[in-house]
Design goal:
The structure is a single chain. The protein is mostly helical. About 70% of the residues lie in helices and about 0% in strands. A hairpin with a 5-residue loop joins strand 1 and strand 2. The longest helix has 28 residues.
Length: about 375
């Protein structure tokens, strides 16, 4: 089904307004919890964990390394360049420091992402499902990261609009947006694969490949590949980027680290985690059964796979999967079949739970 025309699109207002309401609720709950605990909630959004690395790159460029007591080396080359470049540019022309510029980028990109997610959902299922999809993305358990100076919202905005461009057969635009996504996060590999697989399927089906499709596919990996090459040249090693990621514990191990983590937990926690993974698998199955458009399906499965097969810190994996908004399309379609009041109640409960969890995590000691 095609989305409604741009002149009269109440569902777009519902998508953006509902999404913004979830993020405002998260910020209000964080502010109240921070005041009650005597902590600086605003600082938690822009001055901790990965945000600090991005700000340091924006202010001083690449070149920082931290050697941990166990000998692991954390290099800032693990962080892709577009967000710190935007932080640097905005802080030069606006009365903001790099940290504040990072929040401006993240909050602006979050609305752009919600808009693109709505467009994809409206095209794939219905405008109502698209609006609910955007709001569901705003109540994702780790949606508090969408309010931080992190790259998730910027990347998701590029990815959603790139996928929408593919669905509208605008391949050069899709490839250009994929370039920007590839300069933002390594997860762009899933988006690159989505464009390539979709083009290959079209070639098999039509026995021809239009020039604009080929151009979009060839353009798509240039951002991701360009940064990998840059790190390799800078460090005089073809595998430098992957070595840097391994230093952060982000090497690909096929899920071995995840299995060991589950096995190390007490059995109640292990069962709970297995149940969560089973739910994740069921959502993927639903995406297949409900015949998500091919580029959206490949991208979604790709982001999930990349998030699970690495040896990264387990607590970050839900955040790493957050750009896979296609996982939420089956629940959004189900909510769209309910009465509006019932759907609103469900979303309100989820928003409250997400806001509470976000405040608890942000005011705690560990990174998301």
């Amino acid at each position: 089904m095609s989305p409604p025309t741009r002149r009269r699109d109440p569902y777009l207002l519902l998508a953006l307004g509902g999404y913004a309401a979830t993020r405002v609720l998260g910020l209000v709950v964080l502010a109240v919890a921070a005041a009650a605990s005597g902590k600086d909630g605003f600082h938690r959004l822009s001055g901790r964990w990965d945000s600090v690395w991005y700000v340091r790159i924006a202010e001083h460029g690449y070149g920082r390394q931290v050697v941990l007591p166990n000998g692991d080396v954390h290099s800032d080359l693990a962080f892709f360049p577009l967000l710190p470049a935007l932080e640097r540019a905005l802080s030069a022309v606006l009365p903001l420091d790099a940290a504040g510029a990072g929040l401006l980028v993240s909050w602006t990109a979050s609305l752009a992402a919600a808009w693109g997610i709505y467009r994809c959902g409206a095209l794939a299922v219905s405008p109502r499902a698209g609006a609910l999809l955007a709001v569901l993305w705003g109540v994702y358990p780790t949606a508090f990261v969408q309010s931080m100076a992190y790259t998730e919202t910027l990347f998701t905005a590029f990815a959603a609009w790139s996928l929408y461009a593919v669905l509208r057969d605008r391949w050069i635009l899709a490839g250009a947006l994929c370039v920007l996504a590839g300069l933002t996060r390594p997860t762009a590999a899933a988006l690159i694969a989505a464009l390539a697989v979709t083009a290959a399927a079209a070639l098999v089906r039509d026995r021809r490949l239009p020039l604009r499709t080929l151009a979009g596919v060839l353009l798509a990996p240039l951002g991701w590949l360009g940064y990998v090459v840059y790190v390799g040249v800078r460090e005089s090693s073809a595998t430098a980027y992957f070595d840097v990621q391994a230093g952060w514990g982000n090497s690909i191990d096929g899920g071995v680290a995840l299995a060991r983590f589950i096995a190390s937990l007490p059995w109640p926690a292990s069962l709970g985690l297995c149940a969560a993974l089973a739910l994740l698998a069921w959502l993927v199955v639903l995406c297949v059964r409900q015949r998500l458009p091919l580029p959206l399906l490949v991208y979604t499965v790709g982001v999930v796979a990349v998030s699970l097969v690495g040896a990264a810190y387990f607590g970050s994996r839900p955040r790493l999967m957050m750009p896979a908004f296609g996982l939420l399309l089956p629940p959004a379609a189900a909510l769209a079949r309910l009465r509006p009041r019932t759907a609103a109640v469900v979303l309100a409960v989820l928003a409250a739970a997400s806001a509470g969890y976000g405040a608890f995590t942000l005011l705690g000691p560990g990174p998301p």
